[in-house]
Amino acid sequence: MRDGQGWDATHDVIVVGSGAGAMTGALVAAGDGLDTVVLERTALLGGTSAYSGAACWLPGTQVQERAGLGDSTEAADAYLRALTGDTEAERRDAFLRHAPDLVARLEDDPAVEFEWRAFPDYVAAPGRMDAGRSFVPLDLAPELLGDLLPLVRPVIDRDRAGRGHRAGAPLTAGRALIGRLLLAATRTGNARVRTEHHVTGLVTEDGRVTGVEARTPDGTVRIRAGRGVLLAAGGFEGDDALRAEHRVPGSAAWSMAPRGTNTGELLRAVVEAGAATGLMDEAWWCPGTELPDGSAAFTLGLRGGLIVDGSGRRFANESLPYDRMGRAIAAVVGASAPTYLIFDSREGGALPAITVPSTDPAEHLAAGTWVRATRCRSLPLSSAYRQKR
Length: 389
Prior knowledge:
This protein is of the alpha/beta class and 389 residues long. The protein contains 13 helices and 13 strands. Residues 378-389 have low confidence and may be disordered.
């Protein structure tokens, strides 16, 4: 949309979204002395980042150096080149070049602390770190956040149930990352957060984005950016129409994003403003277990069972890294057809995997999302093999 008249507020920098990327951008801008505002469409900060394990794949930094890993930018470059070839070379080089400086800058603030934890690089390729090069934020004591604590989105199980953080428990993983970035940004004195500000459009003047329009509980507001707008939101996995348009398999109900988010309005707004897009059929894929309410649970670390397609055919190794198994599933399911996990009762009827959020098997059986056989017959492996032949 155009016409920059009638502003309700003005800041140097507007950050749209409140995930890890958004909050990092807000901290850097505020740390440079810029009046910065974060606009979050929901009442809670963190988005999908708050649900995550917060493993940061930023190579060659002081965090890996402290752990004595022997990691380097050159090794990471070799690894990425082995995986991606020469695609996106300019972005890859910029990422590798700036990662060490970014991490050093973040850790300059005492509120932001990281440590390396073993998490192997997924693919056997030149430059791979067998023990991994990822690092995570240290757990964060809730009392350090004080009045900011209720702003951080809780762990997914509690969030979907409408409950806040567990009393007295430290914030871990993605919650710790969002909490630490929020604490550091607000301590600069230059950053503020506005929740329930749902950005629905961009304001442009003379071909330049100069502000945003947002829907709030008190009505629509127009906010001007004197220096720039950082868009760190805009996912569309929560919109079935955009999924179909860009051939993304599955259903909006299966999105792991917080409820009611990532519905594509911001994407439509930036395209209308003339922005280029790419990789619209890509995602960070993962297997998902259907829950009784029709949503999905992030599923990884299978310890048993077979995953088959609708014809009963096993099509991949269930022990693949979850992003690769998710991609394999996406390749066979089409727009809506599910795959099936078949497992036995050796774990007492529980799923032989990690699921987030978790659900009682009895609820699945009652809802029909799991089906249990009352009788089964096993064959000796040699007999089964002969029959298969």
